[in-house]
Amino acid sequence: MNINHHLDDATLVSYSAGALSQGMALVVASHLSVCPQCRQRAELNDAVGGALLESLESESIADDMLASILTQLDDLPLAPHSAVYDLSHKTIDPEVPAPLREYIDCSLDQLVWKRIVPGVTYYDMPWEGRGVSRLLRIAPGKAMLAHTHNGNELTMVLRGSFSDEIGRFCRGDVADLDDQIEHQPLVDSEEDCICLIATDAPLRFTTLFGKLVQPITGF
Ligand SMILES: [Zn+2]
């Protein structure tokens, strides 16, 4: 897989710290599962975090306090990225990244897609929480509505490709966007473009039509 667009440092650090929403963590884990380059950066972050903890240990944290912190860490529920994925009972569809197979037990084409507008359908991840976490499927030649973000938006391409103001995004690429960017992704592949998307706050549509359909799209 030839990957050209990667995760931001800030996103990787938040991921290592377990600070991302479940949906955002799923996109990060899915990209890491296909991108050795980002995996290496994530491991480096973990190593730096570990070294920091060690230096704190020797200098300023009393032994019993450290023990208490470590116990608390042990008690924390596993974040999606640290879960061990038992895939033995799953159908292996190479289009679906391993972390996503925890939630999708079939191929992308077998999912029950819900229509937003002609040419745009979605499949929601089975959890509630801040922001949106869903698969979005857009027909060739269709554009997503122009929007900016109140928070961050993470998009990973699973099939097809799209282009926007930043560049062209193909299978495996992630668009890691903050609230400074307005963009309008246009599908430029001959097949549908299917993306895994997560936001940590509602999108802000910049067109009147976008504002009108916002209650319907749920973004
Ligand atoms: Zn990467």
UniProtKB/TrEMBL annotation:
Name used for this protein in its record: ChrR family anti-sigma-E factor
InterPro entries with a match to the protein in the record: Anti-sigma_ChrR, Anti_sigma_zinc_sf, ChrR-like_cupin_dom, RmlC-like_jellyroll, RmlC_Cupin_sf
Residue ranges annotated for the ChrR-like cupin domain, each copy included: 107-199
Gene3D superfamilies: Anti-sigma factor, zinc-finger domain, Jelly Rolls
Record lineage: Bacteria, Pseudomonadati, Pseudomonadota, Gammaproteobacteria, Oceanospirillales
Top-level taxon in the UniProt lineage: Bacteria
